[in-house]
Amino acid sequence: MIFKILTLGLVIFFIYIVFFKKSRVKNINSTKKDNKADIIADEMMECPICKTFVSKDEAILSNGKYYCSQECLKNSTLI
Predict the structure, then answer these.
(1) Which of 33, 34, 58 is nearest to 44 (CA)?
(2) Shared-domain flag, residues 34 and 59
(3) Which range of residues forms the domain containing residue 19?
(4) Considering the entire predicted model, what is its pTM?
(5) 63: nearest Cα among 53, 76, 52
(6) 30-43 pLDDT tens trace
(7) Cα angle, residue 66 at apex, residues 78 and 71 outer, rounded to 5°
(8) Which of 10, 17, 71, 78 shows a CA-CA span of 20 to 30 A to 2?
(9) 35 lies in the same domain as 61
(10) What backbone phi and psi angles, to 5 degrees, belong to 68?
(11) What is the C-alpha separation between 34 and 41, in angstroms, rounded?
(12) Which pLDDT belongs to residue 42?
């Protein structure tokens, strides 16, 4: 009797793995692809003073140019 119950449990487990696990993995993979697209969408700008690339969101915008730091911004006014 216990052998039949264990066999039935294993059959149900394998059915779950075959039909439901794959769909869950597909959902996880599609979510990861969406996150990667957001990361790649970030634009990198080059600082005109030190030629360092910095994220557009983190850069300092002054006179239509993007600077990586306050120091580079101050050096641009000295030139």
Answers:
(1) 58
(2) no
(3) 1-41
(4) 0.49
(5) 76
(6) 665 555 555 566 78
(7) 40
(8) 17
(9) no
(10) -80, -25
(11) 11
(12) 78
